[in-house]
Give the backbone structure.
Amino acid sequence: ERGASLEPSHPLARGPVASPPHSVDAFVKEFLRELNYGQGVPLSRSSLNDQYLALARTVRGYLTARWLETARKRRSHTERAVGYLSAEYLLGRQLDNALLATDLTQIAEDALHACGIELDALRQVEVEPGLGNGGLGRLAACFIDSMATMGAPCIGYGLRYEYGIFKQTFVDGRQIEIPDNWLSMGDPWEIAHPEMEVPVHFGGHTERYVDEAGRDRVKWIHGWDVLGIRYNYMVPGYQNGVVNTLRLWRARATRAFDLDIFNAGDYAQAVRSQTFAENISKVLYPEDSTPQGKELRLQQQYFFVACSLYDFIKHTQPTDFDVRDLPERIIFQLNDTHPVIAIPELMRLLVDDYGLEWEDAWGITRQCFAYTCHTLLPEALEVWPVSLMERLLPRHMEIIYRINEGFLDEVREAYPGDELRVRRMSIIGDHPERSVRMAHLATVASVKVNGVAELHSQLLRDKVLNDFAELWPDKFTNVTNGVTPRRFVRQANPYLSKLITDTIGVGWVANLDRLEELEVYAEDEDFREKFRAVKAANKERITRVLQRRDGIALPEGHLLDVMVKRLHEYKRQSLKLLHIVTLYDGIISGRLDPASVTPRTVVFGAKAAPGYRMAKETIYLINSAATVINADPRVEGRLFMAFPANYNVTLAERLIPAADLSEQISLAGKEASGTGNMKFALNGALTIGTDDGANVEIRRLVGDDNFFLFGMDEPQVAELQARGYRPADYYETNENLRSAINLIASGHFTGGDRDAAGLFVGDLLSNDAFLALADYQSYMDAQARVEAYYADQEAWTKSAILNVARSGYFSSDRSMRDYIDRIWHVKTGV
Ligand code: BZD
């Protein structure tokens, strides 16, 4: 990279000598130095934010030596690395994770105490970077954590959004979105490199020319440019001395751009065009499953992959690097289709900039990418109109056409005369307008294509990408998702962590399979009692959190039933609502003896995409039902609903450890994997769930006796849909269901306003695209089994312990192992 002015032999020329010693005194000294000289305040006059920033910088200081050392080691060998390309990283708060990774938690606590400061008060100051929508973004964050913990060479690339996922509030029960100005207090974890500029081009046109060697070449005459500014984040492994890099890009206007306009004398226009360029990294799009095909989104995608490819080739490789060796140095993992424009970008670099022949460039490109698909919903498969591509990225569009030509030749050769198949498989689609099918492009160019759970990968092969799986059966594989045990058990659940460590030792944190050693303790009465005490303590903690955060007063002693995830029809929050309303309706109508109902608190957490009407109506109805049910003395002590606004990683870390029951109730064949399901099981909640996504694997591992299965499986769903699904049939024949729906439709929960529930009820009765009514009775029966089982606390606790003991498979360390063995083939151990 850049040169240093000190002689290389000088001790400071290679990096810091060592990080400060692990002692309370040393920590106090570093902390006060950061406070005084970094923040410029004495302790006596410092604000909480000053103290937080100083603390974060102190901890970051401990990471820096290891980070430089990791980078130095990696530079000295030439082994292949992983470039994880993701438009989203839903990181969550950084402080605790950095303290845990460096084993400084106790020292920091004592050091701050000596300064008269409570660590916990500073923890609360941190604003979590919400640079993702949900599962996909959180998965990327888990993966980079695991790669660092395994000492695997990995660099994460993405976008440094100035505004992350919106902050949700409720006004009269309706979702209101507030911009997430997460950087307003400064981010102590990022290291900006404003001098590291990467040029990125857009628009314009292409021209053909003949070079000195007489070869036909193409030149892209750019329409406009922006600069990519590098921001580094450290990704520490768990107590192993490894610190990897997450590199996020911010867009800035070029100076040339400004100068032209200045010279034309229009200052105001110059400022406006600056804003235009900087818009590219301004905001995360909050649509998690129905991409809107917005031009700015395509700009974001191209911007970050162009920066990342350029950065990898020019900045991380030796100056004499030969691009023909690229496949030996890197495998780019495409986190869904969002970064897929990297494929024609690499072709453009190789052919236009490095002058390679098309076939050679294609041979290289085809070894450098692997693609992970995260969906089964057809409307979630990204397509970009050809007209937009031609305008924004004219050279890339030409390259895509040429890739498609070669690919369709291959198809025609394999299936002579099958033009229907050729049309189905083409990278260019015709309906409703000519557009580029990004999943097809990704599949054609990638070494491997994977789904994120066994069922999902199977459905990709058999349905969504069936033609491709027939042509290239070996290209398709599965890697079941996982979650990092550091954040989601060790940090989020300190009580459980202590119990586990006291019982089987500390090795489980970096080797989650060791949880199976807990299995025998399911039979140990004393252990079960301690396990219950952990749950109780976590319930007390979430009670305090919700009281302080949302002014919600959770009742004591209830079964805690939790459904937290993005709001989407396929996830069926509507079905959960029908369950609650059925219980409520049963009690107030006298059909159900309240004494027979297990006291239950249902907690929801969910953001709806701002433009997703039905999702927002569902939020409104849940809030309305909560208000009425919580105020009705007839169900007091039996039913309670809570819907804290703005569910995020920080709340998940508090809520999941307290849950008894995990709701994973999507329509079978729709949830690619789910990862919340894994977090709950690892924290000792029992799952009520359909045979969908990773639920299938969870149930197989924890055992049927420790999982509440209900609903149709995927073939049954397909069959019912083929037969013709009529939701009204279920309404007409199921008395409880009819009564619950009628109660909602009557306006009982919406202040007498029938219209307010109209959209929800109308859709359920006449459409119900995700078959909630078809699974209703099965769900109610399963909930009855939950109640009966919960009454036997010893049996329930045994099952909960077995859920923990048998869920080690769902560590993202294991997912990374699978990616390494099946796809990446990179070495671990730094
Ligand atoms: O990815 C989710 C799936 O729905 C889950 O089943 C799965 O567990 C996780 C991780 O594999 N998909 C998303 O979260 N998708 C998005 O967030 C998204 C974001 C932008 C555009 C499209 C989808």
